[in-house]
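Hi C.,

You asked whether I'd gotten around to modeling the 283-residue construct. I have! Everything is below, sequence then structure, no commentary in between.
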Amino acid sequence: MVVKKFNKKSILLKALLILTLTAITVIIILPVYFVISTSLKTYEEYVRNPIGLNFSAISISNYTDVLNSTNILTAFGNSIAITAVSVLCAVIFSAIGSFAIALINFKGSKFFYGLCVLTMFFTGELTYVPLYMLYSKLGMLNTYWVLLIPCFVGFQSLGIMLGTNYLKGIPKEIHEAAIMDGASLPWIFFKVDLPLMRPTLSLIAVMSFQSAWSEFFWPMITTMGNKDIQTLPLKIMEFNAADATMFGQYCAGLTIMTIPMIIVYILFSKYFMEGMTAGSVKS
């Protein structure tokens, strides 16, 4: 009979790893649980029991209050429209830009690629002041344009970098065979590279969706004078700012706003995970 010897050091390391992962999981889950449980309580129940959840006292009144509030459907529609434009622009421009840099290799392509990478080091907050002054002089504040124009340059730098790295990992023989068969560049782009880029483009779409859907600060400073074009995050924040007794409605609004992101991730989870590693290993 073979007796397996256990290494005390490895057992301690595994136990420490399990405890660490458990602690991280609890830290992540607790805020989610708090928001969802609070959204299912009346204000009186929340004051009586802010942490626990009494299943016999569950109420959906907070959700009905949010859905019946003024301009909530307008804000929801604004967020959908702006997010859709942002995702569409990110996917289209990223695909075209990465194809041009990786395969056409035009003069100055390396400089353009380096410029795209360089812009990733500048966060949006650094550009808010000059952009606000620019839109103010152009008279675009409190209009849809101030929300739509940034969609054209939102995730393009990251998308071009991911797409370029992925396309450079595709074997050259595929493109050479297509060219020998008389295929044009548009044909290669639509019939060869675009289907192969599906995982990377799905990753770009999900990340762009998350960023545009939850964007708060830029719409807040540029649409303060026109509530008809404000997005969903601004409308939900009104519940938190209006009255302390509306904290349940605020949590219900956050829960509602999170549902589309969960749905998008579920639909694109397969391609999302493939896109996370696409281009990291050259074929």
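If it helps when you're writing up: The longest helix spans residues 72-104.

Thanks,
B.
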